[in-house]
Amino acid sequence: MSTWHAGLWGLLGSGLMEAWDLYAAIHAARGFPWKRRGRLALAPYLVAVAIRLGVGGGLAAAYAAGGQIAGAIGAVTVGIAAPKILEQLARRTTVDEPQAVAVPRARPGAPSGRAVGVEAVREEGAVDVR
Question: Which pLDDT belongs to residue 8?
Answer without folding.
Answer: 86
